[in-house]
């Protein structure tokens, strides 16, 4: 973690995962410092019906928790990352799937990802 923090010139990193079934999402996140110590962690269970609203809601909650964990001064550089503007949740879902397959293809693990971006 120290090497990554030095390369990125950061004091903290937000790690996480997203698990999804047909109806629901579970987002697990943890804020760690450069020594790898966990400063805060949380889980968010939400309906997967409206991905765009869910993304915004969880991002706001995580941003608030990060400010509480590291203080307002340290969190001044925290910017809310937004995905590309999408007309629908289904479109955004295909976009995210396309990114996943794109990364897999870059690593030589899969071919044929272009159809998800159309």
Notes on the structure:
The chain is an alpha+beta fold. The chain folds into 2 domains: 2-82, no CATH class; 86-118. Helix content is 42%, strand content 25%. The protein contains 3 helices and 3 strands; from the N terminus they run H-E-E-E-H-H. The protein has helices at 2-8, 51-74, 89-106; strands at 12-20, 24-33, 38-47. A 3-stranded antiparallel sheet has the order 1-2-3, covered by helices on one side. The radius of gyration is 16 Å and the shape is globular. Mean pLDDT is 77; it is low at 79-83.
- Class by helix and strand content? alpha+beta
Characterize the overall form.
globular
- What's the rounded overall pLDDT mean? 77
- Structurally, the number of domains stands at 2
Kindly state the percentage of residues in helix. Answer: 40-55%
- Can you count the helices? 3
* Major sheet size, sense and barrel closure: 3 strands, antiparallel
- Largest beta sheet: strand ordering: 1-2-3
Radius of gyration: 16 Å
Task: Calculate the terminal CA-CA distance, rounded to whole Å.
Answer: 37 Å
The oligomeric status of these chains comes to single chain
Helix/strand order: HEEEHH
Low-pLDDT runs = 79-83
Strand content: 15-25%
How is the secondary structure organized here?
Elements: H1 2-8, E1 12-20, E2 24-33, E3 38-47, H2 51-74, H3 89-106
Antiparallel strand pairs: 1-2, 2-3
């Amino acid at each position: 973690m120290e090497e990554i923090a030095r390369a990125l010139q950061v004091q903290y990193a937000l790690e996480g995962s997203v698990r999804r079934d047909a109806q629901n999402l579970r987002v697990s996140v943890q804020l760690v410092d450069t020594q790898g110590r966990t400063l805060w962690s949380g889980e968010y269970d939400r309906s997967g019906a409206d991905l765009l609203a869910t993304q915004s809601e969880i991002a706001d909650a995580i941003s608030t928790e990060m400010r509480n964990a590291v203080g307002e001064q340290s969190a001044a550089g925290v910017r809310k990352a937004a995905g590309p503007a999408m007309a629908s949740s289904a479109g955004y879902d295909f976009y995210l799937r396309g990114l996943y397959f794109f990364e897999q293809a870059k690593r030589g693990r899969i071919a044929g990802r272009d159809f998800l971006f159309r």
